[in-house]
Amino acid sequence: MTKKNLLQKGILLGSAVLSMNVSAQNKMQRPNIIYIMCDDHGEQAISSYGHRLNKTPNIDRIANQGVRFTKAFVTNSICGPSRAVLLTGKFSHLNGFVDNDCTFNGEQQTFPKLLQGAGYETAIIGKWHLVSNPTGFNYWNILPGQGDYYNPDFINNGKKERKEGYVTNLITDYSLEWLDKQRDKNKPFCLMIHHKAPHRNWMPDIKNLNKFDSADIKVPDNFFDDYATRGRAAHEQEMEVARIMFPGYDLKLFDPLKSGFPSAATDSWLSRLNPTQLAAWVKAYSKKNQQFNDQHLTGKELALWKLKRYLQDYLATVESVDESVGKVLDYLDKTGLAKNTIVIYTSDQGFYLGEHGWFDKRFMYEESLKTPLLIRYPNHIEKGWVCDKMVQNLDFAETILDYAGVTIPKDMQGISMKPLLEKKVSKIRDDLYYHYYEYPGVHSAKRHYGIRTDRYKLIHFYYDNDEWELYDLKNDPKEMNNIYSNPSNKKIIETLKRRLVEMEKQYKVPSIEEEVKKIAPVK
Q1: DSSP states along 136-199
Q2: Contact at 8 Å (CB) between 14 and 113?
Q3: pTM for the whole thing?
Q4: How far apart are CA 358 and CA 367, in angstroms?
Q5: What crossing angle do the helices spanning 299-335 and 167-177 adopt, rounded to 10°?
Q6: 8: three-class secondary structure by DSSP
């Protein structure tokens, strides 16, 4: 028997043993799991978080009927790596997916495989973004790569097909169809609904194209941040709304006078639309684009206009996500599944909505390090509870397994949140480790790693520079003042650096020297 066959036999045997370890009574009581994850949905655009940018009544239903986390964080703020951490419960350097140029190794252990082995029916629908085909799922219907907002391709259990419609609506329809008609209803299920929205370039559904045109959109008070106390990383990034956004792709300043589909490279993002959809887009944007052209804005006024246009489209895209969540919750209520179904709503990371003048994510600063997290489980999680204790997406797989009654493998690196959710412990972690790898790369966010405690954050930028930053989150929650060079912080820095070394050992992080040897030299 080959090594591969022995490995497969071992996995099957392990699954069988795992399944036998789940008692018949436990099987009857095990919860269903619906995990809803958006792409780049910052908590600032969820009304239950109190930022007043928009209203998300359906997402708020989960918060009102369960718990809302105010300190949920990621390990690596970028799309693919965040998804790999979710699946494996391991940091990027161990699951092998450190940046978006990687391919996920589907042969490794994941929590959906462990659920399958314990008798769960598993499915994933929507954005995958891990290059290899999904494994550990009874059903998968995913977007190739980033996917498209309009008339997207789907890969349905290996078969690629284009579907007419808007991507958020299609993902919702496929999810409800699987719940209602395709799953084995004799088994508990885990359905992962992964939305493309609100990922760049923020293309709203036709009915929402002008939804926020008259909205009074609040400008972050640090939108014109000059990065005075920060090092090269903040100064050399390519994430600024004012400087980096593309006129057509990001800001929708396309030419409405073109006949037929656009041919210019800057307008190629419109080519997916059919004639009816394109006509609606031309109608929605022509008047306001002409108003912009007539103003001849420059300087700060132009930057503020760009921010407003960006947020109008971003929030309109979120609108469809909220509608989707409502449809899923309504289905659970109507069918009686709600009472025994855990519903999780989160994002693959946070996002800048103008804070520090930025869009995108990547940095260890709060807006991208933090992710929204709302969890509902009737009769098990207290209603309307707000948790201000630190958790990480590293903990999600372990939590799902714990609630499903499946033994958490010892090589997973996170901590189950179940005791915290049920208020049996006051917290599960005192600090967290973060590591970002994708540089050189798009947006030029430099490589860095660091530690966050309840009060302090220490960041080390490396590779083509060697700079440290320290923030006192109690006195400087918006991270405007890097206090690393202040001599009075020497003891704090020494303590944080010692703990950082301990965490690197605990999480088996390779040395920076080893990592840098594998990277192409900076040009």
Answers
A1: S-SEEEEESTT--SBS-EEEETTEEEE--SBHHHHHHHHHHHIIIIIS-TTS-EEEEEE--TT-
A2: no
A3: 0.93
A4: 10
A5: 10
A6: helix
Largest CA distance in the chain: 74
Bridge partners of 471, per DSSP, are 457
- Asked if residue 305 lies in contact with residue 297, where contact means CB atoms within 8 angstroms, the answer is yes
In this structure, are residues 45 and 354 in contact, taking their beta carbons and an 8 Å threshold?
no
379-432: pLDDT as tens digits: 999 999 999 999 999 999 999 999 999 999 999 999 999 999 999 999 999 999
Name the residue ranges covered by the structural domains of the chain: 29-202+310-433, 232-308, 435-517
Amino acid identity, position 488? S
Please provide the DSSP assignment of 360-371 as one string.
S--SSSHHHHB-
Task: Please give the Cα distance from 166 to 152 (Å, whole number).
Answer: 8
CATH code given to domain 29-202+310-433:
3.40.720.10
**Could you give phi then psi for residue 376, rounded to 5 degrees?**
-125, 135
Distance CA 319, CA 171 (A): 15
Return the CA Rg of the chain.
Answer: 23
For 99, 171, 464, the CA distances from 127, given in Å and listed in that order, are: 16, 9, 33
**29-202+310-433 shares its CATH topology with 435-517:** no
Question: What is the per-residue pLDDT across 92-104, written as a single tens digit (0 to 9) for each?
Answer: 999 999 999 999 9
Q: Where does 435-517 sit in CATH, by number?
A: 3.30.1120.10
Q: How far apart are CA 504 and CA 500, in angstroms?
A: 6
Helices vs strands, H then E, count in the chain: 16, 16
One-character DSSP codes across 392-456: EGGGHHHHHHHHHT-PPPTT--S---HHHHTTSSS-S-SEEEEEE---SSGGGPPPEEEEEESSE
Ramachandran angles phi, psi of 498, nearest 5°? -60, -45
